[in-house]
Prior knowledge:
Layout: H1 6-15, H2 22-45, H3 74-79, E1 84-85, E2 88-89
Antiparallel strand pairs: 1-2
Helix pairs in contact: 1-2
Amino acid sequence: MPSISREEVAHLARLARLDLAPDELDHLAGQLDQILGAVAQVTEVAADDIPPTSHALPLTNVYRDDEPRPCLPAESVLAAAPAAEDGRFRVPQILGEEA
Length: 99
């Protein structure tokens, strides 16, 4: 059974930039130890003849085929825009010249 020490939890907390109180370290050490134990049990059960999967059931694409279709004319779309310039939407500048 895996065991994680209080010092290892403190190290992980420092890496994650978490400031944990001493009682939190003790509490999390026990919880992380249980998690590691559960993961160890799963690795014992996993068999080599079972292929890795991301889903328990096979998935099928439910989207339609991507086929070109006629779209709205640019003039009618830009006519509804608050501002247009050179056949494009005009928006306020958000980046400086250096970008």
